[in-house]
Amino acid sequence: MNIYLLTWNLARNLVDPRQLAVDFFRAAATNNNSSSSSSSSSSTPVLPDVIVLSLQEIAPIAYAFLGGHQLDPYLSRIVETLPLAAQHHGAAPDLYRHVLTETLGLTAIMVFATPAAADRIASIQTAGVGVGLWDMGNKGAVGVRMALRRPELELTFVAAHLAPMEAAVARRNADWEAIARNLVFEDSDDGEDSDDDDDKQHGIYSPTARVFVAGDLNYRTRDAPPSPTDHHTFPQADAPPDSPRHHSQWLKGDQLTRERAAGRVLHGFDEEPVTFAPTYKISSRGGWAKHRFPSWCDRILFLEGSGADVHAYTSLPALPSSDHAPVAMSLSLNPKLPQSDPSHPRNRPPFPLNPDWRQRREAARRTEVVVGVLAWLGLTWEGNAVVVAVVVGWAAVYGVWYR
Q: pTM above the 0.85 mark?
């Protein structure tokens, strides 16, 4: 099975499907097992069986917190991209079936599959957790757990968005812990009453799962914001590899690499070598914005021992609608899961599941609705129109009553 993962922070803007479609499969495996990220057109991309998209900042907070049809204008453009991307490589526009879209606040995960791959899906579970203020979903994670037949595979995909800003390393690590504790998948109800549902609940870590985490993890290359003159030392696109201005030199300060090595975050996860340029913060005029250090905020990692043969891990060209460049990975899976040490995090998770995860999510969801309604009334033209109509109505009633 060939899988294609893509993560992108949409910056709360509408996506142009035609622009995104052109380079959508840039990281796809090719007919000679090389990355299609090369400018050469001699290699034909091998279009994947399954596509998983991790999307952050999918819409303005009013629409994202209310959810439902409020998100249709934003997510429908992603759906429209897939037929265009397939056609761009000579495939039929109906090559992919839209399997699911799951959102939590401003984060979404979308799964597409060929009909043959979709028919192998025996079950799907979804889960979500907010790690923003009051556990709301302005930051957080949403996950999908799929069981496949022929052969049997258990796949878990997590779309995540962690705390921003250079100095918030500890907060990002705490966000990961909250996700590991509170992102809980539940087996479907078998009709039997039971007071103990622990055996029906599963976190990110599982002895039998191949787990992938993709998202705007927000780890930076410096621990403090840049000074007014630091932008003069930012990477240059034409700098040779041995130059201090080449982007590879900035990886030495990558917080995610440092924190993983210290065992403080993404325990047991691995990442392919990062060879692409920083994906944040892209200036609208090209290059890097001066008030943020160029960083690899957008990453894709997989649990060690997932049997993944990675073909490519790279970024896509930045689009005008976002200050992040998309990042994509193509891989194929070994049908047999390699044996792992009993002490490995997949067998001994670093954090236990929170017994109150459900109550926390329900309370956070109620808060999201309140915040979403207030933001909709105050920050959208539709909400403003409702407020004006109510005020005019009350004024008319008041005038008639006291005339």
A: yes
